[in-house]
Amino acid sequence: MSQKKSRQVRRAEDRARALQPQRPSRRPLLIAGSAVAVVLVAIGGLFAVKLSQGGSTAAAAAAPRAGAPPAVVRSIATLPAAVFDRVGYQSDVVKPQPISGPPLKQDGKPLVVYLGGEFCPYCAAERWAIVSALSRFGTFHDLGATHSSSSDVYPNTATFSFHGASYASRYLSLDAVEIYSNTRSGDGYAALDRPTAREASLDRRYGTGAIPFVDIGNRYVINGASYDPGLLQGLTMRQIAAALRDPSSPISKAILGTANAVTAGLCKATGGQPGNVCSSPAVTTNAARLAS
Amino acid sequence: MPPASPPEAPASRPQRLSWVAVGLALAGLAISSYLTIAHYTTHVSLACSDTGTIDCQKVTTSAQSMIGGVPVADLGVVFFAVAAVLVWPGAWRSRRPGVVWLRIAWVTAGVGMVLRLLYAELFEIDAICLWCSAVHVLTVCLFATVLVGEALAAEDARGQPAAGRMI
User: I need a surface site. Which of A2, A36, A117, A192 has the fewest CB within 10 A?
Assistant: First the structure.
């Protein structure tokens, strides 16, 4: 009798226990917390490794001797499309000449090759147009500031230097080589960057032996300056950059007129990409008049 | 006697987390959309430094800004749009294993992508994009919110009366 009663009590206790809320297990929260901690540790680890490498190593190694004023670089990179369009087609600038070589590519993108020298006043002039045009397709980093030789024609023309600079773009690759500095060495100028075998070969094949030499994806080449470097005489980089914002200035017409013609060539190499640049009035007008 | 119904949970902890997750997903969607617009418009400059270590242009125009020909910014838009649907209160309430695991897998994939892109910024591009970093932070927060929400939901389920769990 008492055994039966105790069985009934046990059953009643079991039922009551079953209806009681179970004590929540902390295991799921522990697993979730661990997963989040692993992610945070991984992120922290990446930053720790980077800091232990001493920060921006690549940029430091490639740093130019004198950097271009950031305001000047930014001013060119943010030139409104309307200014390029207002300058449009300029008949008196020399246009890129068509060539028919095998497509020149790097990293799957059309490659632009530039060969020049810091001493060279014609290169000094051409760089303004090249930087203006290429800034519509990507971004320059670590552009240098230099000037042409003080003992040559158009002395001390203020300009950029591609020595130590890099260029990032989804549409184009750039190999820019400053073969000589503007420092006298013997009868010439001190060597700076050595062209690769491919760059030298392109120069031999499509160049005239003069600098600047620009090959736009083996579709067009530029040999020499496209406008008169005398326009830039006595001006600082900031003054030239400021003049570019006025589409009616002779400097703007020369530099951006050249840039528009170069951009038309670049757009032919990229197959019309990016659309908002390549379909702009300035570029379509120049493209229509660019020999092909 | 019919089995007892589980008590109505007024606004359980996981349910409140749903709105946190929705907020994170929508913020991520907004920033990804901004990055996408900047990607397709050459002269819409990102409101971000373009010199030194912090350089959005350098990152967003790098080769690593595309994966399989698709801009990473576009992938961000898709990620946050789908995430917003998966953490919306209606979906969040669902305890169907398929939905729960899809939600966890989705945010885990997002965090995996964050680690890959962070590696690219630090070691391949050598620049940090602040807007991208904001997206990364939101993705990690979303990951944490979803995991904690699922963990709390699992705990709550275990904490229900046994009879209730049988329904």
Answer: A2
Counted across chains A and B, CB pairs separated by less than 8 A come out at 110
ipTM reported for the complex, 2 dp: 0.80
Helix boundaries (H) for A103-233: 121-134, 197-206
Pairwise CB contact (< 8 Å): A19 & B55: no
Token pair, residue A135, equals: 């800034």
Question: How close A30 comes to chain B (CA, Å)?
Answer: 8
CA distance B152 to B142: 15
Please name each of the domains of chain B with its CATH number. Answer: 19-39+54-64+72-158 (1.20.1440.130)
User: How do the domains of chain A map onto residue ranges?
Assistant: 2-52, 65-289
Minimal CA separation from B90 to chain A, in Å: 22
Give me the percent of chain A exceeding a pLDDT of 70: 88
Q: Which residues from chain B sit within 8 angstroms of residue A139, using beta carbons?
A: 50, 57-58, 61
Q: Mind listing the pLDDT tens digit for each residue in A133-160?
A: 999 999 999 999 999 998 889 999 999 9
